[in-house]
Design the sequence.
């Protein structure tokens, strides 16, 4: 393909603006068109990043200059919009969770495969330097066999988050309603860390025992959760999630413990480093000392986007695709079912 891939943006909120900033740093792509039900949002995005405004989703998908459709809509609209784009022969990059049920994700996977198109889910935190280094260390055996994983999704969201989003740019309370959001802090936030654990360790989530509750906000979805999760190798993962923890900052963290050492991953949205501990000397790392591992990089969205573009141009797999969305969503759904039934629930990912 001799020209830049044209990206059509559907949903011009904060996530879209972050993606467009990344597009400006990846030479093979450019913003071709934008659409939002609030025209002023599309206008602002086009003024800052280029492209043309399209009045409807269908007109954007049909635009001959659009090769890739990026979908950043309320959760209940993601899958149907991505399906439209795939049917029109467009590649898709979809915000998490990509769909609200596993069968819809399977359908997206199969549609993309049958048409030779690339379907990606925007798990951009996979491309942060801390995650990449942690994955390398685990694969090299630095911490031995994994025995325990601790996930903390502890945030102090503003009271207005559920009504206007994290940046106050939305005039829609879809995040507060179960039918449109599908879930609260676990689906909106912890799902990223659930995906990162799989990506770093190569392990799968097998079973969940959990409780979720709505304790701090007047919404339909959960703002608090706790879960015990069995991994495919028998290791135990624990999750503690809170959307409104007073004063919380940089506390979306992951600890991965093994027979030989431990990794502490920083909050991906913060500035802390990856930390690494080993019981015995390992390569350049001295025993019984906490090491700060260099290589921190904040622009993970550009790295992720570049890998997604290479998948389109070279024919390889995307950096995160429907199979990854399936595994992450199935784990979240097992957490929710366990809380509803009071039982341990198997993670059924396909």
Sequence:
């Amino acid at each position: 393909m001799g020209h830049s891939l044209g990206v059509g943006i559907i949903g011009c909120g904060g996530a879209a603006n972050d993606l467009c900033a990344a597009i400006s740093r990846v030479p093979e792509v450019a913003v071709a068109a934008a659409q939002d039900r609030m025209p002023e949002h599309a206008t602002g995005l086009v003024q800052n990043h280029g492209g043309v405004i399209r009045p409807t989703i269908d007109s954007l998908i049909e635009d001959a200059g659009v090769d890739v459709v990026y979908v950043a809509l309320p959760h209940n609209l993601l899958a149907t919009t991505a399906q439209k784009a795939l049917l029109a022969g467009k590649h898709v990059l979809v915000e998490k969770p990509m769909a609200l049920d596993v069968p819809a994700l399977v359908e997206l996977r199969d549609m993309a495969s049958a048409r030779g198109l690339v379907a990606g889910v925007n798990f951009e935190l996979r491309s942060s330097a801390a995650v990449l280094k942690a994955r390398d260390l685990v694969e090299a055996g630095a911490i031995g066999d994994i025995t325990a994983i601790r996930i903390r999704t502890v945030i102090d969201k503003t009271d207005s988050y559920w009504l206007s989003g994290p940046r106050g740019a939305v005039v829609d309370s879809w995040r507060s309603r179960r039918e449109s959001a599908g879930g609260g802090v676990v689906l909106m936030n912890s799902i990223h860390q659930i995906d990162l654990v799989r990506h770093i360790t190569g392990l799968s989530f097998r079973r969940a025992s959990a409780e979720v509750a709505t304790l701090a906000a007047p919404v339909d979805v959960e703002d608090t959760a706790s879960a015990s999760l069995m991994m495919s190798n028998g290791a135990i993962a624990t999750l503690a999630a809170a959307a409104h923890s007073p004063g919380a900052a940089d506390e979306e963290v992951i600890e991965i413990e093994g027979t030989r050492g431990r990794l502490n991953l920083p909050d991906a949205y913060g500035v802390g480093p990856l930390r690494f501990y080993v019981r015995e000397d390992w390569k350049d790392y001295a025993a019984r000392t906490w090491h700060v591992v260099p290589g921190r990089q904040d622009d993970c969205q550009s790295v992720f986007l570049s890998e997604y573009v290479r998948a389109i141009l070279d024919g390889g797999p995307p950096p995160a695709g429907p199979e990854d969305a399936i595994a992450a969503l199935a784990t979240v759904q097992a957490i929710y079912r366990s809380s509803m039934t009071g039982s341990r629930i198997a993670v059924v990912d396909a």
Remarks:
- The chain has a mean pLDDT of 95.
- Residues 190 and 348 are 18 Å apart (CA to CA).
